[in-house]
Amino acid sequence: MITTAAASRHAKAACLQQNLKPVLEKLYEKYNRRGLIKPDPLQFVYEYSNPVDMELAGFLAASLAYGRVEQIEKSLSNLLGRMGKSPYQFVLNFNQRDRTNLRDFKHRFTAGDDISDLLMLFKRVLAEYAGLEKFFLKFYSPADENIIPALSRFCGTLLNMHKSASVSRGKSGIAYLLAGPSLGGAAKRLNLFLRWMVRKDDVDTGLWSSIDKSKLIVPVDVHINRLCKILGLHNRSSVSLKTALEITRRFTEIEPADPVKYDFALSRIGILEDCTGRCRAQCQACELLSWCRGRRDWSI
């Protein structure tokens, strides 16, 4: 027997499929194009053609994807510029002189030594696995409901490796760069990296073909959080892992095989169209207008 709650969930899912999915598809067609990637940090991944360079550049780009867009671009240009033509070769040959040269690097509260600690871990990983994907697959199981368990084990293992090998240099900020979902946060930057690697279209690289994209979690930044709240996909007051999971579940009702499909397109509304959640004249041309009209308070 179908319960009242189950029937309600089914009705809501049917409503999303019928009414919201066509709108999201239009947004996907409009925004999900390679030419619109900039100023997204994903742009730096496409400066390389070798997959091992691309995944390393991608991890660094996602790791520093916090703060103002202009500062993120400046910091990544600086960091990757120091690494030369091949981030992969730079990491394989990383030494004390490279650590010294990176010491004056700074991106908000990520210091050069934090980046060096991360690169030393990746040097150990690459020596054994020849790529980040093979290492990540150690922790991935297709039987898991989503990517959260694998991501937690991936981050936990790297942090334990750092702890066991670290030489006392004062407090390290590497934990922020590897802040996995086991800490309760939305793990936005790590989920962003996984979206770039696992999905394949004109925007995302699809380099990691061994992972099912239906397992991905939406990387919830300020734009996605605001728009998903306006669309009625969640009603939480803060961004947490529970928020990310709830948003992902709602997108799964719309696109079960690819719940993160619309992430890039929706984030463009915030970044390129400067959507703040408040009613403005330019809202009249937005594909989401009819959904926003149903909200009493746009100042979210």
What does this structure look like?
There is one protein chain. Strands 1-2 form a two-stranded antiparallel ribbon. It contains 14 helices and two strands; from the N terminus they run αααααββααααααααα. It has two domains: 114 residues; 179 residues, no CATH class.
What is the gist of this entry?
The chain is an all-alpha fold and 300 residues long.
- H/E series: HHHHHEEHHHHHHHHH
Termini, distance in Å? Answer: 39 Å
- In the sheet with the most strands, the strands line up as 1-2
Helix content: 40-55%
Uncertain stretches: 296-300
SS class: mainly alpha
Kindly report the average pLDDT value.
89
Tell me the overall shape. globular
Q: Write down the Rg.
A: 20 Å
- Helices, by number, come to 14
Beta fraction of the residues?
under 5%
Strand segment count = 2
Number of domains: 2
Largest sheet: 2 strands, antiparallel
Annotation keywords:
about 300 residues, disordered C terminus, 2 strands, single chain, mainly alpha
What is the secondary structure topology, with strand pairs?
Blueprint: H1 4-31, H2 51-63, H3 69-82, H4 87-92, H5 96-102, E1 106-107, E2 110-111, H6 112-129, H7 132-136, H8 148-165, H9 174-177, H10 188-198, H11 222-230, H12 241-254, H13 263-271, H14 289-292
Antiparallel strand pairs: 1-2
Helix pairs in contact: 1-13, 2-10, 5-6
